[in-house]
Amino acid sequence: MPPRKIIIDTDPGQDDAVAILLALASPDEIEVLGITAVAGNVPLALTAKNARIVCELAGRTDVPVYAGCDKPLNRALVTAEHVHGKTGLDGPVLPDPQMPLAEGHAVDFIIDTLRAEEPGTVTLCPLGPLTNIATAFRKAPDIIDRVQEIVLMGGAYFEVGNITPTAEFNIYVDPEAADIVFKSGKPIVVMPLDVTHKALVTKSRNDAFRALDSKVGHAVAEMTDFFERFDKEKYGSAGAPLHDPCVTAYLIRPELFSGRHVNIEIETGSDLTLGMTVADWWGVTNRAPNALFMGEIDADGFFTLLTERLARL
After folding, report:
1. Contact in structure between 248 and 21 (CB atoms under 8 Å)
2. Which residues contact 206 (CB under 8 A, 6 or more apart)?
């Protein structure tokens, strides 16, 4: 099988960084056509910078990084420095990137790439708010039919919310964008908190990253050392959940995950439950399924894959 062509849409974020590293370490399975940055965990200037830092860390300055939307479609930007630190990549000390941003807007890159590649051969992999993807779909609706699949990190059902009592951060930041994407009619695979909270970086798993004794291994260990302080205090968990690498891992080893094909609606009108992913997990409505909503992960298999691939960089 030829490698799967993907566009990573991201707001790095330590866990976004690990997701990008996993993709760049897996060229047999994944061809990263480009990385598009969006405002989310931190403002756009930092997410665009962080994406380039990660490419340089991986030794992949050939991968173009585009800056995209600096705010949600209809709302003020909400960020998450309280989780990721003021830079978004707090933890390791990494040099400023030398590679420039690619010329042009991320939305135009998404549109142009989908029009240039054969229909049904490009997968979109959003790791942050869905602003760039929704904007591309609104600006050029002809590209929607050309998308192979959308594999995203976002939402929650049994785990409810992490930024409000009912909403996961990526969906909450731009619920209108999420609504557009979930109503697009394209195949969607969702990695919600229900799965990512089972992918915990325990001490032994982080020790395995550090034991790689490489620049990448040490950086990832230091990222998760920083990242986990928030989640340990908040959830009382054994470590930090690696949310976004679940997207990349699914592209490489889909058998690590299981879920249900269900209907997902995005709440855009309620102040109380804004950004909630209303998942018809139990099939109690007549709304047609529109997403494969994951519920389980083989966490040991996931971390074995991640450690093995990071060792390649």
Report:
1. no
2. 221, 224, 225, 239
pLDDT in tens, 257-287: 999 999 999 999 999 999 999 999 999 999 9
Q: CA–CA separation, 7 vs 115, rounded Å?
A: 13
Amino acid at 198: K
Catalytic one among 82, 197, 243, 261? 243
* Cα 171 from Cα 131, distance rounded (Å): 10
Three-state secondary structure readout of 145-161: HHEEEEEEECCCCCCCC
pLDDT, tens digit (0-9, with 9 covering 90-100), for 53-82: 999 999 999 999 999 999 999 999 999 999
Radius of gyration of the chain (CA): 18
pLDDT exceeds 70 at position 83: yes
Tracing tokens 């665009």 back to the chain, one arrives at: 48
Residue 75's φ and ψ, nearest 5 degrees, are -135, 165
Neighbours of 141 (CB within 10 A): 10
Is residue 243 part of the annotated active site? The answer reads yes
Yes or no: say if 264 and 274 are a contact pair by the CB < 8 Å rule: no
